[in-house]
Design brief:
- The chain has 3 helices and 11 strands, in the order αββααβββββββββ.
- The strands form 3 sheets. It has a 6-stranded antiparallel sheet, covered by helices on one side.
- Strand 6 and strand 7 form a beta hairpin.
- The chain is globular, with a radius of gyration of 15 Å.
- The two termini are 20 Å apart.
- This is Phosphoheptose isomerase.
- GO terms for molecular function: isomerase activity.
- Pfam families: MannoseP_isomer.
- Keywords: Isomerase.
Length: 166
């Protein structure tokens, strides 16, 4: 990671998560759009308590487990225009603003700005894209698995469009 601002943000985020008592199960700071932290799934309720005020893990559960993450998006970068067959998602903006586009079709909708404290609910199959605006954005995310026998993973990303050729 050659960007000192990105490096410092990832270090601060990791330290903050650890100070909150979260176990970081995985971390990826090499994504061209930013990166993410995966939190131990056993801590889904504590994660919901910390980042999704008023939501219980049971109310978030669709089928089977929940997978908590922290997403970090760089200014001016976009994640792929994508959807998923085996999960819904819920996002909470921790540090913003960030841009989010959604649509029920492959045509990308308008990018709307969301400030810290705002929540985005994405249905299974709903097309979506996270966009970095003028500054680094940080979101809490919970994957809501919809197939208990075959939980969602990174292979469950259907990319309609991707700036990075994936």
């Amino acid at each position: 990671m050659d960007n000192p601002i990105k490096q410092a943000l990832f270090q601060r985020t990791a330290a903050h998560l650890q100070d909150q008592g979260f176990a970081i199960a995985a971390q990826d700071d090499a994504r061209p759009w930013g990166g993410f932290f995966v939190i131990d799934e056993a801590q889904a309720q504590a994660f919901a308590d910390a980042y999704f005020e008023g939501l219980s893990a049971d109310s978030l559960r669709i089928a089977g487990k929940l997978s908590p993450k922290i997403l970090i998006v760089a200014p001016g970068q976009r994640l792929s225009w994508q959807y998923h067959h085996r999960r819904a998602e819920i996002w909470q903006v921790v540090h913003g603003p960030v841009g989010v586009a959604t649509s029920d079709t492959d045509e990308q909708g308008a990018v709307k700005s969301y400030a810290a404290g705002e929540r985005i609910v994405l249905r299974q199959g709903e097309r979506h894209r996270l966009v970095g605006l003028q500054s680094w954005g940080v979101l809490a995310e919970i994957w809501q698995h919809t197939d208990a026998e075959n939980p969602s993973d990174e292979s469950d990303i259907v990319r309609v469009q991707d700036d990075y050729g994936r």
